[in-house]
Write a structure and sequence with these properties.
By secondary structure, the chain is mainly β. It is built from three helices and 13 strands; from the N terminus they run E-H-E-E-H-E-E-E-E-H-E-E-E-E-E-E. A six-stranded mixed β-barrel has the order 1-3-2-6-5-4. A four-stranded mixed beta sheet has the order 10-7-9-12, with no helix packed on it. A three-stranded antiparallel beta sheet has the order 8-13-11, with no helix packed on it. The longest helix is centred in the first third of the chain and has 9 residues, at about 20-25. It starts with a strand and ends in a 54-residue tail after the last strand.
Length: about 240
Protein backbone atom coordinates (compact mmCIF):
# COMPACT_ATOMS: atom_id res chain seq x y z
CA UNK A 1 0.00 0.00 0.00
CA UNK A 2 1.10 3.58 -0.46
CA UNK A 3 2.89 5.04 2.52
CA UNK A 4 4.35 1.77 3.82
CA UNK A 5 7.60 2.17 5.71
CA UNK A 6 10.38 -0.41 5.71
CA UNK A 7 13.49 -0.54 7.85
CA UNK A 8 16.68 -1.03 5.85
CA UNK A 9 20.04 -1.48 7.57
CA UNK A 10 23.05 -0.54 5.45
CA UNK A 11 26.82 -0.41 5.91
CA UNK A 12 28.99 2.57 5.15
CA UNK A 13 31.76 2.07 2.60
CA UNK A 14 35.19 3.45 3.28
CA UNK A 15 36.27 3.44 -0.35
CA UNK A 16 34.63 4.09 -3.69
CA UNK A 17 35.68 2.77 -7.06
CA UNK A 18 35.35 -0.10 -9.51
CA UNK A 19 37.65 -2.45 -7.60
CA UNK A 20 35.80 -1.94 -4.33
CA UNK A 21 32.41 -2.40 -6.01
CA UNK A 22 33.57 -5.62 -7.66
CA UNK A 23 34.78 -6.98 -4.33
CA UNK A 24 31.46 -6.19 -2.65
CA UNK A 25 29.45 -7.94 -5.37
CA UNK A 26 31.58 -11.08 -5.04
CA UNK A 27 30.73 -11.10 -1.32
CA UNK A 28 27.01 -10.78 -2.02
CA UNK A 29 26.67 -7.05 -1.32
CA UNK A 30 25.44 -4.26 -3.61
CA UNK A 31 27.17 -0.87 -3.57
CA UNK A 32 25.04 2.25 -3.40
CA UNK A 33 24.87 5.88 -2.35
CA UNK A 34 22.60 7.64 0.13
CA UNK A 35 22.08 11.24 -0.92
CA UNK A 36 21.16 13.48 1.99
CA UNK A 37 19.41 16.82 2.23
CA UNK A 38 22.27 19.23 1.91
CA UNK A 39 24.86 16.89 3.40
CA UNK A 40 27.69 14.90 1.89
CA UNK A 41 26.54 11.68 0.09
CA UNK A 42 27.16 8.44 2.02
CA UNK A 43 28.73 5.55 0.07
CA UNK A 44 26.87 2.51 1.41
CA UNK A 45 26.32 -1.18 0.71
CA UNK A 46 23.58 -3.68 1.53
CA UNK A 47 23.22 -7.42 1.09
CA UNK A 48 21.62 -8.29 -2.25
CA UNK A 49 18.93 -10.43 -0.61
CA UNK A 50 17.89 -7.54 1.63
CA UNK A 51 17.75 -5.07 -1.25
CA UNK A 52 15.64 -7.44 -3.36
CA UNK A 53 13.21 -7.76 -0.47
CA UNK A 54 12.76 -4.00 -0.57
CA UNK A 55 12.34 -3.81 -4.36
CA UNK A 56 9.99 -6.77 -4.86
CA UNK A 57 7.66 -6.58 -1.86
CA UNK A 58 3.96 -5.72 -1.97
CA UNK A 59 4.82 -2.12 -1.18
CA UNK A 60 6.35 -1.62 -4.63
CA UNK A 61 9.11 0.88 -5.39
CA UNK A 62 7.51 3.80 -3.55
CA UNK A 63 7.81 2.66 0.05
CA UNK A 64 9.51 4.96 2.53
CA UNK A 65 12.77 3.37 3.64
CA UNK A 66 13.87 4.02 7.20
CA UNK A 67 17.57 3.70 6.47
CA UNK A 68 19.82 2.93 9.43
CA UNK A 69 23.56 3.28 8.99
CA UNK A 70 25.58 0.52 10.66
CA UNK A 71 26.43 1.47 14.25
CA UNK A 72 23.96 4.37 14.41
CA UNK A 73 20.53 4.66 16.01
CA UNK A 74 19.10 7.51 13.93
CA UNK A 75 17.06 6.75 10.80
CA UNK A 76 17.03 8.51 7.45
CA UNK A 77 13.64 8.58 5.73
CA UNK A 78 14.52 7.84 2.12
CA UNK A 79 13.13 6.69 -1.21
CA UNK A 80 14.68 4.56 -3.93
CA UNK A 81 15.90 7.07 -6.49
CA UNK A 82 17.49 4.76 -9.03
CA UNK A 83 19.06 1.34 -9.52
CA UNK A 84 20.97 -0.45 -12.28
CA UNK A 85 20.58 -4.09 -13.32
CA UNK A 86 23.09 -6.19 -15.24
CA UNK A 87 21.29 -6.90 -18.56
CA UNK A 88 22.83 -10.37 -18.89
CA UNK A 89 22.82 -11.79 -15.36
CA UNK A 90 19.77 -9.84 -14.17
CA UNK A 91 21.47 -8.87 -10.90
CA UNK A 92 21.35 -5.44 -9.32
CA UNK A 93 24.65 -3.63 -9.85
CA UNK A 94 24.14 -0.34 -7.99
CA UNK A 95 21.41 1.67 -6.27
CA UNK A 96 20.78 5.25 -5.16
CA UNK A 97 18.70 6.34 -2.17
CA UNK A 98 17.44 9.88 -1.66
CA UNK A 99 16.71 11.20 1.82
CA UNK A 100 13.40 13.08 1.95
CA UNK A 101 11.25 15.08 4.31
CA UNK A 102 7.88 13.49 4.90
CA UNK A 103 6.18 16.90 4.89
CA UNK A 104 7.56 17.95 1.47
CA UNK A 105 6.14 16.77 -1.88
CA UNK A 106 8.32 14.74 -4.23
CA UNK A 107 8.07 13.99 -7.95
CA UNK A 108 8.27 10.42 -9.21
CA UNK A 109 6.99 8.01 -11.88
CA UNK A 110 4.02 5.71 -11.18
CA UNK A 111 2.88 2.71 -13.24
CA UNK A 112 -0.53 2.82 -14.99
CA UNK A 113 -2.36 -0.53 -14.81
CA UNK A 114 -5.30 -1.29 -17.13
CA UNK A 115 -8.25 -2.93 -15.37
CA UNK A 116 -11.05 -5.03 -16.86
CA UNK A 117 -11.88 -6.26 -20.37
CA UNK A 118 -13.02 -3.61 -22.82
CA UNK A 119 -16.28 -3.89 -24.76
CA UNK A 120 -14.29 -3.21 -27.93
CA UNK A 121 -12.05 -6.21 -27.29
CA UNK A 122 -15.10 -8.45 -26.91
CA UNK A 123 -16.28 -7.17 -30.31
CA UNK A 124 -12.98 -8.14 -31.95
CA UNK A 125 -10.97 -4.96 -31.42
CA UNK A 126 -7.39 -4.70 -30.12
CA UNK A 127 -6.66 -2.96 -26.80
CA UNK A 128 -3.25 -1.24 -26.68
CA UNK A 129 -1.60 0.46 -23.71
CA UNK A 130 0.29 3.41 -25.14
CA UNK A 131 1.72 4.90 -21.91
CA UNK A 132 2.79 2.70 -19.02
CA UNK A 133 4.08 5.31 -16.57
CA UNK A 134 3.15 8.88 -15.67
CA UNK A 135 4.87 11.41 -13.45
CA UNK A 136 3.14 12.57 -10.30
CA UNK A 137 3.79 14.90 -7.38
CA UNK A 138 2.74 14.01 -3.84
CA UNK A 139 3.94 13.74 -0.28
CA UNK A 140 6.23 10.71 0.14
CA UNK A 141 3.61 8.82 2.15
CA UNK A 142 0.86 9.64 -0.39
CA UNK A 143 2.57 8.39 -3.58
CA UNK A 144 0.41 5.52 -4.96
CA UNK A 145 2.00 2.19 -5.86
CA UNK A 146 0.11 2.25 -9.16
CA UNK A 147 -2.75 4.07 -10.88
CA UNK A 148 -5.60 1.87 -12.09
CA UNK A 149 -7.42 2.73 -15.32
CA UNK A 150 -10.82 1.09 -15.99
CA UNK A 151 -11.15 0.17 -19.68
CA UNK A 152 -14.37 -1.87 -19.58
CA UNK A 153 -16.45 0.84 -21.31
CA UNK A 154 -14.02 1.36 -24.20
CA UNK A 155 -15.47 0.61 -27.64
CA UNK A 156 -13.61 0.17 -30.93
CA UNK A 157 -12.18 3.56 -31.88
CA UNK A 158 -12.11 4.91 -28.28
CA UNK A 159 -9.09 6.56 -26.69
CA UNK A 160 -8.38 7.24 -23.02
CA UNK A 161 -6.07 10.12 -22.11
CA UNK A 162 -4.44 11.35 -18.94
CA UNK A 163 -7.32 13.81 -18.53
CA UNK A 164 -9.68 10.81 -18.22
CA UNK A 165 -8.01 9.59 -15.02
CA UNK A 166 -10.11 10.21 -11.91
CA UNK A 167 -8.55 12.78 -9.55
CA UNK A 168 -6.70 11.47 -6.49
CA UNK A 169 -6.57 13.47 -3.31
CA UNK A 170 -3.07 14.71 -2.59
CA UNK A 171 -1.73 13.57 -5.99
CA UNK A 172 -0.99 15.92 -8.92
CA UNK A 173 -0.50 14.56 -12.43
CA UNK A 174 2.46 16.31 -14.05
CA UNK A 175 2.31 15.04 -17.65
CA UNK A 176 0.34 16.61 -20.52
CA UNK A 177 -3.42 15.99 -20.01
CA UNK A 178 -3.60 14.94 -23.70
CA UNK A 179 -1.15 12.08 -23.14
CA UNK A 180 -2.72 8.94 -24.65
CA UNK A 181 -2.90 6.06 -22.18
CA UNK A 182 -4.90 3.38 -24.06
CA UNK A 183 -6.70 2.80 -27.37
CA UNK A 184 -9.00 0.19 -28.90
CA UNK A 185 -8.53 -0.23 -32.64
CA UNK A 186 -9.83 -2.41 -35.46
CA UNK A 187 -7.55 -5.42 -36.02
CA UNK A 188 -5.35 -5.21 -39.09
CA UNK A 189 -6.39 -7.63 -41.84
CA UNK A 190 -3.68 -9.64 -43.55
CA UNK A 191 -4.52 -9.95 -47.27
CA UNK A 192 -3.35 -13.01 -49.19
CA UNK A 193 -1.30 -12.15 -52.29
CA UNK A 194 -3.18 -12.79 -55.53
CA UNK A 195 -1.62 -15.16 -58.12
CA UNK A 196 0.24 -13.43 -60.89
CA UNK A 197 -1.67 -13.17 -64.17
CA UNK A 198 -0.22 -12.97 -67.66
CA UNK A 199 -0.52 -9.59 -69.25
CA UNK A 200 -2.39 -9.26 -72.52
CA UNK A 201 -0.26 -10.54 -75.42
CA UNK A 202 2.18 -12.39 -73.12
CA UNK A 203 2.57 -16.10 -73.90
CA UNK A 204 4.03 -18.96 -71.98
CA UNK A 205 7.44 -20.12 -73.15
CA UNK A 206 7.71 -23.54 -74.76
CA UNK A 207 7.56 -26.24 -72.11
CA UNK A 208 6.32 -23.86 -69.37
CA UNK A 209 3.15 -24.82 -67.53
CA UNK A 210 0.70 -22.16 -66.47
CA UNK A 211 0.27 -21.71 -62.69
CA UNK A 212 -2.34 -24.11 -61.33
CA UNK A 213 -2.11 -26.51 -64.32
CA UNK A 214 -0.39 -29.87 -64.50
CA UNK A 215 1.90 -31.04 -67.28
CA UNK A 216 0.27 -33.50 -69.75
CA UNK A 217 0.64 -37.14 -68.70
CA UNK A 218 3.63 -38.82 -70.35
CA UNK A 219 5.31 -35.55 -71.21
CA UNK A 220 9.07 -35.60 -70.73
CA UNK A 221 11.83 -33.13 -71.07
CA UNK A 222 13.51 -32.99 -74.48
CA UNK A 223 17.05 -34.40 -74.49
CA UNK A 224 19.71 -31.76 -74.25
CA UNK A 225 21.58 -30.84 -77.41
CA UNK A 226 24.46 -33.25 -78.06
CA UNK A 227 23.05 -36.07 -75.86
CA UNK A 228 22.89 -39.61 -77.40
CA UNK A 229 19.59 -41.33 -77.99
CA UNK A 230 18.92 -43.94 -75.34
CA UNK A 231 19.62 -47.62 -76.20
CA UNK A 232 21.99 -47.33 -79.25
CA UNK A 233 24.81 -45.73 -81.15
CA UNK A 234 24.28 -42.57 -83.14
CA UNK A 235 22.97 -43.30 -86.65
CA UNK A 236 25.53 -42.94 -89.44
CA UNK A 237 24.67 -40.45 -92.14
CA UNK A 238 24.11 -41.71 -95.69
CA UNK A 239 26.60 -41.21 -98.31
Amino acid sequence: MAGERIRLEVQEREHRGTRESRRLRKEGFIPGVLYGRGIKPHPISVHERELRRVLTGDHGLHAILDVVLDGQKSTHSSILKDYQVDPIRGKIEHFDLQEVRLDEAIQTAVVVELMGESAGTKAGGVLSQVTREIRVEALPLEVPERIELDVTAMEIGDTLRLSDLPPREGVTYLDDPETVLATVTVPTKVEEPEPEELEEGEELEEGEVAEGEEAPEGAAEAPAEGEQQAGGEPEASEG
